TrEMBL record:
GO terms for biological process: mRNA splicing, via spliceosome. Belongs to the WD repeat PRL1/PRL2 family. It holds the Pfam family WD40. One of its GO terms (cellular component) is precatalytic spliceosome. CDD domains: WD40. Residues 69-130 are annotated as: Disordered. InterPro entries: Prp46/PLRG1-like (IPR045241), WD40/YVTN_repeat-like_dom_sf (IPR015943), WD40_PAC1 (IPR020472), WD40_repeat_CS (IPR019775), WD40_repeat_dom_sf (IPR036322), WD40_rpt (IPR001680). Coiled coil: none annotated. This is Pre-mRNA-splicing factor PRP46. WD repeats lie at residues 158-199, 200-241, 242-283, 284-325, 367-407, 423-457.
Length: 471
């Protein structure tokens, strides 16, 4: 059988390929070493043939386009490295991570063994090309430096209730405040003097929630007797009842602009009531545990609820449906606090307080350090944030940075048990300069800022930490 003949085209192509290979060997023969590796290109461009060859090959990529050149970090001269005792420069350590775009390289150390001595060199030059593991273009994480706040001290102790003080509310004129307790009574106190003005009776169980209307002469109360009452403060009598809860009502909040009342309780729902007609507008269902706290605000989410099922729900008031569910907490959420001027709020559960941004409910930061069952939280317009624990522990925080500038234990009423040192409720007055706490030792305590304190006597002891991040 005859062997197949090679086509004429293939022979012609083979000749061209071998000619090209010969020319390549002639050009690059000086770059090949005996071990097959290529040597460095230093001094190669002295040969005119090689120079012309490289210019022809790489002329189009000699300079970067303007768009890419603008994004490159500026070149800075390297700082001279330290000399060893022998006079030789220390070997530069390889950088594991270069800085991101526009940033500086992280300090690296290099050790040179010379008579048992080691020298440390720091490279502070900007990296020509980034090998950063962070997302390109993302801003550097900067921690907020806390604002200085004076420490708080006890100003007055008010006795009069015969049970745990479970609820507090300050009237819009800042002249008096109301307290509700386990003795089934609501007491009205003068804020300036602490004297008792009035006692309202009508509930047949613990009074758990109070709110004073800013537009009407009304006081609203709710209790473990399933009752929600509207008191007329001109006659000091109940003028409306809101019926519908199937179990104890634990929390109550008034809408700041609408004539709407929102209550939550042990039946796991928040109910929205028309203040005037007493009709139940919405039943906000979705929680699987007791609704322990509810807050209202002007803009969506207009209703925020915290529950012992360890979730926080944001509600669309017009539709009567949940806008979002925050499931970050591990334990039941007992307290909420809405900032009076910022569009942010905080939620507190056992050992964990979290700050959120409205309207989407984005997580901002943790308030770390108050390891107790958080019963109550309050924040004023000066960015002082208070949290009270079931064991009597109190923490004062800077709202912006999450820095705890004061922590203390409440002073128990003489003669009361250690088990009765618990903070059950709290509120700032309208000025934000007085903090009122209702406690398990049946007293109401009023706290104020220390006027004699200054940044010199009580300096901020704060250091930035990667463990605490604000998003």
């Amino acid at each position: 059988m005859e062997a197949p003949q090679t086509p004429q085209d293939a022979l012609h192509l083979g000749a061209l390929a071998s000619q090209n290979a010969a020319a390549t060997r002639h050009l690059y023969s000086r770059l090949e070493l005996a071990n097959g590796k290529r040597q460095k290109l230093e001094g190669v461009f002295e040969d005119p043939v090689m120079k012309r060859r490289f210019e022809a090959e790489y002329a189009a990529v000699q300079t970067l386009p303007e768009a890419l050149a603008a994004k490159q970090p500026s070149k800075q001269p390297l700082r001279k490295t330290a000399k060893t005792a022998a006079g030789a420069p220390a070997r530069k350590a390889p950088k594991l991570l270069e800085a991101g775009p526009g940033g500086t390289a992280s300090p690296s150390t290099a050790s040179t063994a010379n008579g048992g001595e080691s020298t440390t060199t720091k490279a502070t030059a900007t990296a020509p090309q980034s090998m950063s593991l962070t997302v390109r273009g993302s801003p550097a994480l900067q921690q907020v430096k806390p604002e200085w706040h004076p420490p708080w001290k006890l100003m007055r102790v008010i006795s009069g209730h015969l049970g745990w003080v479970r609820s507090l509310a300050v009237e819009p004129g800042n002249k008096w405040f109301a307290s509700g307790a386990g003795d089934r009574t609501i007491k009205i106190w003068d804020l300036a003097t602490g004297s008792l003005r009035l006692t309202l009776t009508g509930h047949i169980s613990t009074v758990r929630g109070l709110a004073v209307s800013p537009r009407h002469p009304y006081l609203f109360s709710c209790g473990e007797d399933k009752m929600v009452k509207c008191w007329d403060l001109e006659t000091n009598k109940v003028i409306r009842h809101y019926h519908g809860h199937l179990s104890g009502v634990y929390t109550l909040s008034l809408h700041p602009t609408l004539d709407v009342l929102v209550t939550g309780g042990r039946d796991g729902v928040a109910r929205v009531w028309d203040m005037r007609t007493r009709s139940n507008i919405h039943v906000l269902s979705g929680h699987t545990g007791t609704v322990s706290d509810v807050k209202c605000q002007e803009a969506d989410p207009q209703v925020i609820t915290g529950s012992l099922d360890s979730t926080v729900r944001l509600w669309d008031l017009a539709a009567g449906k949940a806008m979002g569910v925050l499931t970050h907490h591990k334990k039941g959420v007992r307290a909420l606090a809405v900032h009076p001027t910022e569009f942010t709020f905080a939620s507190g559960s056992t050992g964990g307080i979290k700050q959120w941004k409205c309207p989407e409910g984005a997580f901002m930061q943790n308030f770390e350090g108050h390891n107790a069952i958080i019963n109550t939280m309050s924040v004023n317009s000066n960015n002082v944030f208070f949290s009270g624990g079931d064991n009597g522990s109190m923490s004062f925080w800077d709202w912006k940075s999450g820095y705890r500038f004061q922590s203390m234990d409440t002073t128990a009423q003489p003669g009361s048990l250690d088990a009765e040192s618990g903070i059950m409720s709290s509120t700032f007055d309208r000025s934000g300069l007085r903090l009122i706490t209702g406690e398990a030792d049946k007293t109401i305590k009023i706290w104020k800022q220390d006027e004699k304190a200054s940044e010199e006597t009580h300096p901020i002891q704060w250091t930035p930490s990667l463990a605490h991040r604000k998003f």
